[in-house]
Amino acid sequence: MNVYTFSAEMTCGSCENCVKKVLEKNQQKGVGIQSFSVDLKGKKVTVTGTISQAEITEILNKTGITMSLDGVTLLA
Amino acid sequence: DLPDEVTLNVGGMTCQTCVDKIEKHIPTVVEGVFKIKVSLEEGTAFVVFKSPATPEQLVDAIDDMGFDPSLRR
């Protein structure tokens, strides 16, 4: 179980909705997203789950929003 | 073969940034897109494309962006 934090160039409310919708859709698909939080003001996206770094990065990149991985912490 | 055209309904767009993002991003993820014009007012995307691009691919790519696309019947 990892916690991934990304900096995300979200510019307005609908960008935040886009990221939430994409993460929800993938969570339901069972790709290994346990929970997530999207902070528009802080331009941060945090994803917790068993999903691989490559896969979560690809999913977030597909939103067309510029994303960069800040860090990964392993949950015991 | 001749290029094809399709107009998609796109829900979830609220500002010009969304429009610019779709117009910029879709051609990079769907091969064969010649032209894409997104209208915020009408909530639509008009796309001129050739194979290998297909309407379904366009819907999936816009869906992957977090918007709500559908083919206009």
UniProtKB/TrEMBL annotation, chain A:
<dbReference type="InterPro" id="IPR051881">
    <property type="entry name" value="Copper_transport_ATOX1-like"/>
</dbReference>
<keyword id="KW-0143">Chaperone</keyword>
<keyword id="KW-0406">Ion transport</keyword>
<keyword id="KW-0186">Copper</keyword>
<dbReference type="GO" id="GO:0006825">
    <property type="term" value="P:copper ion transport"/>
</dbReference>
<keyword id="KW-0479">Metal-binding</keyword>
<dbReference type="GO" id="GO:0046872">
    <property type="term" value="F:metal ion binding"/>
</dbReference>
<comment type="subunit">
    <text>Homodimer. Interacts with ATP7B. Interacts with ATP7A. Interacts (via dimer form) with SLC31A1 (via C-terminal domain); this interaction improves ATOX1 stability and controls intracellular Cu(I) levels.</text>
</comment>
<dbReference type="InterPro" id="IPR017969">
    <property type="entry name" value="Heavy-metal-associated_CS"/>
</dbReference>
<dbReference type="InterPro" id="IPR036163">
    <property type="entry name" value="HMA_dom_sf"/>
</dbReference>
<dbReference type="GO" id="GO:0005829">
    <property type="term" value="C:cytosol"/>
</dbReference>
<comment type="function">
    <text>Binds and deliver cytosolic copper to the copper ATPase proteins. May be important in cellular antioxidant defense.</text>
</comment>
<dbReference type="InterPro" id="IPR006121">
    <property type="entry name" value="HMA_dom"/>
</dbReference>
<protein>
    <recommendedName>
        <fullName>Copper transport protein ATOX1</fullName>
    </recommendedName>
</protein>
<keyword id="KW-0813">Transport</keyword>
<keyword id="KW-0187">Copper transport</keyword>
<comment type="similarity">
    <text>Belongs to the ATX1 family.</text>
</comment>
<dbReference type="Pfam" id="PF00403">
    <property type="entry name" value="HMA"/>
</dbReference>
<feature type="domain" description="HMA">
    <location>
        <begin position="1"/>
        <end position="68"/>
    </location>
</feature>
<dbReference type="GO" id="GO:0016531">
    <property type="term" value="F:copper chaperone activity"/>
</dbReference>
